[in-house]
Amino acid sequence: MLTNTRVMLKFESRPSDTAGEWLGQFVHRATRRAGQLRCGMTGHNILIHYEPARLSLQCTTCGYESPGWELEAPRTTPSQPHPGPSAAA
After folding, report:
1. Is the sign of the CA dihedral 29, 32, 36, 37 positive or negative?
2. Mean pLDDT taken over the chain
């Protein structure tokens, strides 16, 4: 247990945002929270979200995205040759 120690906090001030940026951020956060509230009451509206090497489920209302699945790269050569049509008559 530490006693008689000093804790130094360093605060950095961010440059002040313009009123338009602040309002846009506020509206974005408010609509996102409203979507989360709606999904909390009625459930998510899930669609499949495709990416080149990943597949996941994403809610169209609140933007929630599941952890998803990593997809392996497609094979360039088949592991076993495909048998051709048989010539038996």
Report:
1. positive
2. 76
pLDDT band, very low/low/confident/very high, at 1 (cuts 50, 70, 90): very low
Average pLDDT over residues 3-18: 61
Tokens 């440059």: give the residue.
15
CA distance 76 to 89: 34
**DSSP labels for 6-72?**
-------PPPPPPHHHHHHHHHHHHHHHHHHHHHHHH---EEEEEETTEEEEEETTT--B---EEPP
- Total count of domains within the chain: 1
Each residue's pLDDT tens digit, 51-82: 888 899 988 888 888 898 888 876 666 666 66
- Confirm whether 8 is domain-assigned: no
Domain carrying residue 66: 44-71
Question: Rounded CA gap, 58 and 45, in Å?
Answer: 8
